[in-house]
Design goal:
6 strands; 6-stranded antiparallel β-sheet; about 40% helix
Length: about 300
């Protein structure tokens, strides 16, 4: 059975225009002339308002940042000013003149005494004349013959003494030779300079009491002392003061050795009391407490 063909009239043709007067069920014309309606464009007034708002927001953000920066800078300036003020007050309090404390007075004296061997000339350490007590406690004067060059501690004393001095930090050895007022005795005085008073105390505790060893004599050719050597030493000894150990040794100007003098004669001789007195006087000069100013900046507090 042959079915009747459905009429195609009224349908749009491919590539052709639709039947006039017919419309698409969705409401659009079935022809190719249909278009999608565009969104309405923003007008110029709206764009200007948006731009102005953006600029205003940027400006307000910049103002906020500036306020934060100014506040932070102000805090830094204030803190710095306080630190400078406190530092100025502290510096003024530290540097203004005030009375010395007992500890500061003691330190001042120790430092002054410790630098005398360098600050004074050699003739200040070893004066030209040194007074001592002779027979019947008569005041007499020993005269300086010469001052030896500064030497190492180990080269100015006997070996047994050198070991003690060097182990406790001896810095140097100063020596000079004197004769008594009668020119009968020759006396060499040696000043061992320790690094500080504590080192001197420790060294003194280890020094031997043997009166045959100590400072080595210094003779000056062409003078009355030229025959004074280690064998001519009759006795030796030492005394300590400040950072110094002051050694002394004595013998006869005529060159007699220790072995040539009977023990009873040296015990009753004026030689050793004179030599000991000269050594003590030089130690006193070096360690005599200096006058301490009452205030940190002189005599006015």
């Amino acid at each position: 059975m042959v079915r009747a063909r459905r009429s195609t009239s009224g349908l749009p043709r491919a590539g052709g225009e639709g039947t006039p007067g017919q419309r698409n069920p969705l409401g659009a014309t079935t022809g190719r002339r249909s278009r999608v309606r565009a969104w309405p464009a923003a007008n110029s007034r709206t764009r200007a308002a948006v731009k102005q708002r953006a600029e205003l927001d940027t400006l307000q953000q910049g103002i906020r940042y500036r306020r934060m920066f100014v506040t932070l800078l102000s805090v830094i300036v204030v803190v710095s000013s306080v630190v400078v003020l406190l530092g100025t007050i502290g510096l003024f309090a530290e540097t203004r003149s005030r009375p010395l404390t007992p500890a500061e007075r003691s330190q001042y004296q120790q430092e002054e005494i410790a630098r005398r061997w360098q600050a004074w000339p050699a003739t200040g350490v070893f004066p030209e004349e040194v007074k001592y007590l002779g027979l019947d406690r008569a005041q007499q004067y020993a005269r300086r013959v010469g001052i030896a060059p500064e030497t190492e501690c180990g080269k100015g004393v006997d070996a047994s003494v050198a070991g003690v001095l060097q182990s406790h930090g001896c810095l140097t050895m100063l020596r000079a030779t004197y004769i008594d007022q009668t020119a009968s005795f020759v006396i060499t005085v040696g000043v061992a300079v320790l690094k500080d008073e504590e080192s001197r105390v420790s060294a003194a505790e280890e020094l031997t009491q043997d009166d045959r060893v100590g400072v080595l004599p210094v003779a000056f050719p062409g003078t009355i002392t030229e025959r004074f050597g280690p064998d001519q030493r009759q006795r030796t000894g030492w005394v300590s003061a400040g950072p110094y150990i002051v050694f002394s040794t004595a013998g006869y100007a005529d060159g007699r050795t220790r072995a040539a003098i009977p023990p009873e004669e040296i015990l009753h001789s004026e030689l050793w009391p004179a030599a000991k007195s000269v050594g003590n006087q030089i130690a006193y000069f070096l360690a005599d407490p200096p006058k301490v100013p009452p205030c940190t900046q002189g005599n006015v507090c």
